[in-house]
C-alpha cells in the first residue's frame, strides 16, 4: 500500500467515526436505545430472533438529523414509518407519525439522566 492510499484510508476512517458520532453519539447510546421498548408496540427485544428494536431517526440524517432525533422502534414499525403514508400508518398502528417524532426529546432526556 502506498503512503497516499494509507492516508486516504485514515481520512475515511476518521470521517466515518465523526458521522457515526453525529448520527448515533456512541455505541453505548445505540445499545441503550435498543434496550428500550418500541415506542409504538411496547415490545422489547427478548431474543435475537424477535423483531429487534432499532435506533430510528425521526429526522433523516440527510436532512440534518442527529442522535437527538432517535426513537426506539421495532424493525417492522420502522419500515412502515419510512414507507407508508401518514394516514395508512395511523390506521395500521393507531399512532400518528408526528406523535412518534415528538417523543424524541423524551429519549434524549432519558439518555442524559442515565449518563
Summary, kept brief:
The protein has six helices and two strands. The protein has helices spanning 3-24, 27-34, 75-83, 86-93, 97-101, 104-114; strands at 53-57, 70-74.
Q: How would you describe the overall organization of this protein?
A:
It is a single chain. The protein has 115 residues and is mainly α. It has six helices and two strands, in the order ααββαααα. Helix content is 55%, strand content 9%. A two-stranded antiparallel ribbon has the order 1-2.
What amount of the residues lies in strands? 5-15%
SS class: mainly alpha
Q: What is the CATH third-level topology name? A: DNA Binding (I), subunit A
Shape: elongated
- In terms of quaternary structure, what is this? single chain
Strand order of the biggest β-sheet: 1-2
How helical, in percent, are the residues?
Answer: 40-55%
Largest sheet, in brief, is: 2 strands, antiparallel
Amino acid at each position: 500500500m502506498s503512503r497516499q492510499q494509507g492516508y486516504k484510508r485514515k481520512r475515511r476512517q476518521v470521517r466515518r467515526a465523526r458521522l457515526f458520532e453525529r448520527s448515533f453519539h456512541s455505541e453505548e447510546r445505540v445499545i441503550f436505545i435498543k434496550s428500550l421498548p418500541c415506542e409504538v408496540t411496547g415490545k422489547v427485544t427478548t431474543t435475537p430472533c424477535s423483531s429487534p428494536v432499532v435506533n430510528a431517526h425521526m429526522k433523516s440524517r440527510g436532512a440534518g438529523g442527529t442522535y437527538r432525533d432517535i426513537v426506539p422502534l421495532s424493525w417492522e414499525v420502522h419500515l412502515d414509518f419510512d414507507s407508508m403514508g401518514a394516514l395508512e400508518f395511523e390506521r395500521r398502528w393507531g399512532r400518528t407519525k408526528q406523535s412518534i417524532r415528538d417523543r424524541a426529546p423524551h429519549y434524549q432526556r432519558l439518555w442524559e439522566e442515565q449518563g
